[in-house]
Design a protein that fits this description.
- By secondary structure, the chain is mostly helical.
- Helix content is 41%, strand content 4%.
- The strands form two sheets. Strands 1-2 form a two-stranded antiparallel sheet. A two-stranded antiparallel ribbon has the order 3-4.
- Helix 2 packs across helix 5 and helix 6 crosses helix 7.
- It binds calcium ion (CA) (2 copies).
Length: 223
Amino acid sequence: MYLVFCSDSLSPFTDNLTSYPSDTHVYGVTCARTDSSSPHSFSRKGNLDGVMLAEDLKEYIGRHAALWTMLAVNCNLDEDTCKDIACKVAFQLAGATEEAGMNLQQFHDFRLNYIETPKGFFEFFQRTVFRVYDRDGNGVLDPRELDNFVTLFYEADSIFAGDRRLPADKEELKQVIRLRFDNNGDGMLSFDELRNVIAGQADLSAPSVTVSVPQQQLPASET
Ligand SMILES: [Ca+2]
Ligand SMILES: [Ca+2]
């Protein structure tokens, strides 16, 4: 169920709608959830076109810590960077662009598909992790971006730290990832190729060590 408000006010949008003066009109949308203290809503300051721009989306994401705090914890990033990345991913998933903004229908679908279902929410998180390392945002990790990504696995405070299944060092892990997950062999890792790695559901162990039989030592030349 939506509650639609119209706004020509420059007042910042807050969770507490009753704090608005009577002449304030807020254009937003809220869904019927049990947590009424945290309405899913957005404002478009001084603009009634129903389009949500990056500024509005960042405000929405900022008020929903669950959308970005996991990034801060897992990737050791500051809050603002996490919110920016979550915004970029939200626009992408909504099929919208930051320049053109997100319309009400796109916002509704994004929220329904990626915020309100655990599966969708997990995918949103995985995509934000991927986007952290896809610095240029071209949708694939090039060798340098992959190098940054695998560093995550070997940092002291990493959630993967101490996992004995991991190869001994990141060079070996990169090799494992390229061999097992670069399905189209283009030397780049797309989100779909890395999805299970990010989800912690991939076998990253080094190939089983084959015990090589030492070659028979040749007698030293006597000449
Ligand atoms: Ca890239
Ligand atoms: Ca590839």
